[in-house]
From TrEMBL:
Pfam families per UniProt: APP1_cat
Protein name, entry field: Phosphatidate phosphatase APP1
Domain Phosphatidate phosphatase APP1 catalytic: residue ranges: 150-299
Domain of life according to the entry: Bacteria
Upper lineage: Bacteria, Bacillati, Actinomycetota, Actinomycetes, Geodermatophilales
Alphabetized InterPro entries for the sequence: APP1_cat, Mg2+_PAP
Molecular function as annotated in GO: phosphatidate phosphatase activity
Length: 352
């Protein structure tokens, strides 16, 4: 007897396949017209990370008018950043520390390639070489070879205020706003800076379900508001051959697993908020990798006009703290022994 649930599922898959083919054909037609007008393949470089003798370089291939730099657009509304002509499955040369490799973009034009290169700790750049254009820099944050501590941080409602629990408000901030109209979460820049400065060249990685199209505004926002620089692990929005929407949970879980593999000696402080799925994702990671998590810090997203509660708990031996802003979280992390107490300025005792 046929399964009655199979028909709706089969219908949905057929509609999905049709929608994906339609999107692909539209992109092909628009790309052909753009090339006829003289547009050429350009590259965007995204902040990546390196450790040991491996550098993970991120970027994107897209079409742009000849002589223009698609990465130079600043402070434009978010919806305009989504209006790009990505170049799926294009190829490009990538250079890191004198090592040159050939990389191939995925179906969304995204480049994600590991380059074997021994780099000193600190900041450096990889270069993407689009044909007929100057090389495009892709920042690299190189962790110390003996790094034992690092920070993973969410962005929406953790770094900047999005109001993800209010979909219309969040959509307005994402699509109509830009980096200069966003407000930072109070105390979070200071908290992340303290966590990053506990160890020299500790890796800092910002993981978000936001689209790669917002990488530029996010990077500028972090710089403008004093957050520590770090790699970005964002995602791609839009229809795929397998789903209408990309799974945010799967993206974050996959990002954490990849970081655990790429930086095997690092114990992470996982920073996020309780507005969506961070608590469950971080707890699951701590249960499966208890020796890789130093602490979990969650910003409590409370309704306006209410005082966010503070809480301390544990997942096994991993401390979990909750509070309404970065300053309160720093206090709880200090009480848990994860964050060192601030040292008083020289001479302060004598003046007291």
């Amino acid at each position: 007897m046929p399964d009655p649930s199979a028909a709706p599922a089969s219908w949905s898959l057929r509609v999905l396949a049709l929608a994906y083919r339609t999107k692909t054909r539209l992109l092909r037609v628009l790309s052909e017209r753009a090339r006829a007008r003289g547009w050429t393949t350009a590259a965007l470089g995204y902040p990546g990370y390196a450790a040991g003798s491996r550098a993970r370089v991120r970027g994107r291939l897209l079409l742009a008018p000849a002589g223009t730099d698609p990465g130079a657009r600043s402070d434009v509304p978010g919806f305009r950043r989504l209006l790009t002509l990505e170049q799926p499955h294009g190829e490009i040369d990538v250079t890191v520390g004198g090592v040159r490799v050939r990389a191939r973009a995925d179906e969304a034009g995204l480049v994600d390639v590991v380059v074997p290169a021994l780099l000193p700790p600190g900041r450096t750049v990889a270069l993407l070489h689009p044909e007929g254009r100057p090389p495009t820099p892709a920042p690299l944050h190189v962790a110390a070879p003996d790094a034992t501590a690092g920070v993973v941080c969410d962005i929406d409602d953790t770094v900047w205020i999005t109001g993800i629990r209010h979909p219309l408000r969040a959509a307005w901030r994402t699509f109509a706003g830009n980096g200069s109209t966003r407000r930072p979460v109070a105390g979070m820049a200071a908290l992340l800076t303290r966590l990053a400065e506990e160890r020299p060249h500790a890796p800092v990685v910002y993981v978000s379900n936001g689209p790669w199209n917002l990488a530029g505004p996010i990077t500028h926002f972090l710089e403008r508001h004093g957050f520590p620089a770090g790699a970005l692990l964002l995602t791609d929005w839009g229809i795929s051959p397998r789903a209408w929407f990309r799974s945010g949970r799967a993206h974050k879980r996959g990002a954490l697993e990849r970081l655990a593999a790429d930086l095997p000696g690092v114990r992470w402080v996982l920073v996020g908020d309780d507005g969506e799925h961070d608590p469950a994702i971080y707890r699951d990671f701590a249960r499966s990798h208890p020796d890789r998590v130093a602490a979990i810090a969650l910003r409590t997203v409370a309704p306006l006009g209410t005082q966010p509660p503070e809480a301390e708990e544990r997942v096994g031996a991993v401390p979990v703290v909750r509070a309404g802003d970065g300053r309160a979280l720093a206090g709880l992390l200090g009480r848990a022994g994860v964050l060192a107490a601030r040292r008083a300025p020289a001479g302060s005792a004598a003046r007291a």
